[in-house]
Each structure stands twice: as C-alpha cells, then as structure tokens.
Inhibitor I9 domain-containing protein (Aspergillus avenaceus), 84 residues
Amino acid sequence: MSERKVRPRQNFPKNFPVIIRFETLEAFEQHDDAVLGIIKQDAGTDQFPASQSLPPIYQPPPLTDDAIGKLEHLGGVIVIESEE
C-alpha cells in the first residue's frame, strides 16, 4: 500500500493530526469500539469527521503519541499522517 505515509512513533509530535483507516471490514467490526474509546479518552470528544463508507475513514482531532501507539497496536488499524 503505497498510500501509507506512517512515521515511526518516536517522530510524532505531542499532538499530531492523523487519519485512521481500517484494513478490512472485519478489522473495523473488531476494533471500532476500541478506536473510538481511545480517541474520546485522548481528545475529549467523539465528534469528528468520518466518511460514510464501510469501513469508515476517521479524521479525529490531533492525538497524542500515547493514543497513536495504542491505535497502532490494534491489528488492522492504520494510522496515517495527516497534513490537516
């Protein structure tokens, strides 16, 4: 997947704009609640732009390095650098 522009975690600033995608519909079904929980805990909101596709593409508020790391550990969840 050449579209993935993922930086190593140590290069993420404290809060970094990201786009979150799911590799498959199954990954979305398995991890969506966890992804939304991580975003809400880190950003303080669950209101952010999301595509209407299945699986959806999320554009949450900027997230901390800790939240990005948690998301990266969920199988099938892709965290992509966003240019905002």
In short: The chain has one domain: 9-81. The beta strands are 15-16, 18-22, 63-64, 77-81. The CA atoms of residues 10 and 65 lie 8 Å apart.
